[in-house]
Amino acid sequence: MSEAYFPVGPGLGTEENFLSLDDILMSQEKLPGRAESSLPRLAVLLGQGAASAESIPEGSKLEIPLWLAKGLHDSKRRIISVELPKIYKEAWRTVFSADANVVDLHKMGPYYYGFGSQLLNFENPENPEIAQTILQTFVARFRRIMDSSQNAYNEDTSVLVARLDQLERALFQVGQKGLNDFQSWEKGQASQITASSLVQNYGKRKLTEVDG
């Protein structure tokens, strides 16, 4: 018996949901880093060698996929060190603090919130500032995103979502669906207003936690 496919949402905070396509794609985003010791048999994987047996010498600069960086990161053994991507550095945090709405998040990184939350897995003295900026950016942009989604009925929304990261685009779609459902109900084209799938799934999750 076939069942409808329901997209799986991304994880929360520093946790990933490996059933989520968004989290799988986000984990492929690369981090600048440095090899603090020799890395055997990783040269081909990181595009720095032609043979699978080649090692990456200590001190080499790297572009490491997030999933691999998390696997190699060890607070006790210095295997790799990870640098902050520029959008999370102090200069850009100042821009976000001044006016987060002017930033094209999709161009800077389509998974700004998710990727930034994953950076908190690495020991960095700037982690508190990064976390605060991510939260403040979301709060500052949320109002405009939802206002836009509620005032765009039967319109081309491609321009409205072009500057949004993937989480913001999902929120915009939820707002659009709520608007369309309300318009249909108001015109008598729907028998009743039902809770959104996000609310329903959240309720099911809470029930599962209680039962567990």
Automatic annotation (TrEMBL):
SUPFAM superfamilies noted in UniProt: GINS helical bundle-like, PriA/YqbF domain
UniProt-annotated location(s): Chromosome; Nucleus
GO biological process terms on file: mitotic DNA replication initiation
Superkingdom assignment: Eukaryota
CDD domains in the record: GINS_A_psf3, GINS_B_Psf3
Main subcellular localisation: nucleus
One GO cellular component term: GINS complex
Family membership: Belongs to the GINS3/PSF3 family.
Biological function: Required for correct functioning of the GINS complex, a complex that plays an essential role in the initiation of DNA replication, and progression of DNA replication forks. GINS complex is a core component of CDC45-MCM-GINS (CMG) helicase, the molecular machine that unwinds template DNA during replication, and around which the replisome is built. The GINS complex plays an essential role in the initiation of DNA replication.
Protein name per UniProt: DNA replication complex GINS protein PSF3
Native organism: Sterrhoptilus dennistouni
Gene: Gins3
